[in-house]
Amino acid sequence: MNTKNYIDILRCPHCTREDKGVLAEVKSEWLGCSDCGRQYPIVEGIPVMLPEEGDKWLGVATDDLPKIEEHDRFVSAAS
Ligand SMILES: [Zn+2]
């Protein structure tokens, strides 16, 4: 999956007002904000850029981030 295109235009919703929030791909399934450390899952190729998602994974170690298959079910159940 090529995520480079949208990484170039997406910004962390928490940091975007200050024109920061540059995102970096983490494990091909997450986007991490280089400014605040919030992390956003990529579900079925679509980044879930919700502030509550970023808050949820703030400070979680890369190795502790769940596989997206598990997380996808979790997101679907909540919506
Ligand atoms: Zn941020």
Report on the structure:
- By secondary structure, the protein is α+β, with helices and mostly antiparallel strands.
- It has one domain.
- It contains 3 helices and 4 strands, in the order H-E-E-E-E-H-H.
- Strands 1-2-3-4 form a 4-stranded antiparallel β-sheet.
- A hairpin with a 3-residue loop joins strand 1 and strand 2.
- The longest helix is centred in the C-terminal third of the chain and has 11 residues.
- The chain is globular.
- The model has no long low-confidence stretch (mean pLDDT about 85).
- It binds zinc ion.
- Zinc ion binds next to loops.
- This is Trm112 family protein.
Give the SSE map.
Layout: H1 4-9, E1 23-26, E2 30-33, E3 39-43, E4 46-47, H2 51-56, H3 68-78
Antiparallel strand pairs: 1-2, 2-3, 3-4
Bound molecules: zinc ion.
Zinc ion is lined by residues 12, 14-15, 21, 33, 35-36, 38.
What percent of the residues sit in helical stretches (DSSP H or I)? 25-40%
Quick check: average pLDDT?
A: 84
Strand order of the largest sheet: 1-2-3-4
Q: Can you list the ligands bound to this structure?
A: zinc ion
Listing every helix as H and every strand as E from the N terminus to the C terminus, the arrangement reads HEEEEHH
C-alpha geometry: globular
- What structural category arises from helix and sheet content? alpha+beta
Distance between the ends: 25 Å
Largest sheet: 4 strands, antiparallel
Any idea what the radius of gyration is? 12 Å
Quick one: how many beta strands?
4
What is the total domain count? 1
As a percent range, the share of strand residues is 15-25%
Number of H/I helices: 3
> Any low-confidence stretches, pLDDT <50, length ≥5?
none
Protein name: Trm112 family protein
